[in-house]
Design goal:
alpha/beta, Rossmann fold, N-(1-d-carboxylethyl)-l-norvaline Dehydrogenase, domain 2, nucleotide-binding, glycerol-3-phosphate dehydrogenase (NADP+) activity
Amino acid sequence: MCSKIAFLGGGSFGTALSIMLAKKGVLAKIWDRNKDVVDDINIKKENIRYLHGAVIPVGVEAFTDIKEVVQDSEYIVLAVPSHVVRNLCKDIREIVSENQIIISIAKGIEAGSGKRLSQVISEELPNNSVVILSGPSHAEEVAQDIPTTVVVASEKMEYAKKVQDLFMTNKFRVYTNEDIIGVEIGGAVKNIIALAAGVSDGIGYGDNTKAALMTRGMSEIVRIGTKLGGKKETFAGLTGIGDLIVTCTSMHSRNRRAGILIGKGSTAEEATREIGMVVEGIKACKAFYELKEKLGISMPITDVLYKVIFEGKEPKYGVYELMTRDKKGEEY
């Protein structure tokens, strides 16, 4: 295979995917604005800042010139945090061609508008096909060839199948799903629940509490996901319960680690600085809080977490409020 793929953003997951693809013969170019990251990849053969310990193989090169990375690539992966996606698309609008497939690996929605990332990309790059890649896939494990499964979704499934073929290996299994709304919403909201699970850990609560948060959190994912047009069965799959499990239980998870720090008394800003990378759950919490208020959807965990992060509510008192809400049936 001699496909060419561009990764815009030198973060952990994009780097891990480039390593995996290079091993199967794909030529991968990484763009990052940080020259130190680029030099580490090219000279030290390691992304020291974002994926320490993973060896960069032959077939992966990094650049600070975005045009050099984008040109001649068949696929362009937007490997940046969700809040950067629109501006990045604007930056490359004049240098992409219509036949290049855009792949988004971020998990979130746009603050303010509440738009899914595929919608944001399509607004800025209307002539390009967009594919979402999502699922339970920690970068650290993908880079180590630990068996992983993900989902690709698109409004044009022939392009999702092309991406499936491109990424599929004997250690990285890729499924397709026509429900792009469900895939995107599941991947975004689970970050909120993972952050809450981390807060629970930081407070010192146990497995019972985490099981409750994950299960009731799943109800919130389904509630808003179906309201927005997603299919209920999608949330029982890899980008729903699958991603929720891995993000709530692993110390690879930035959201869980940040939540632990918040549960121990750190502010969201202090936790983000300690993690050293974007914590998508914090941004998602604000975006989905605003969206659920607008739509009139009950999301009590999201509601309490928002008040902990943005209004200074004591985490333990937030849990007390959740536990003492009005009685109701489990289906609600």
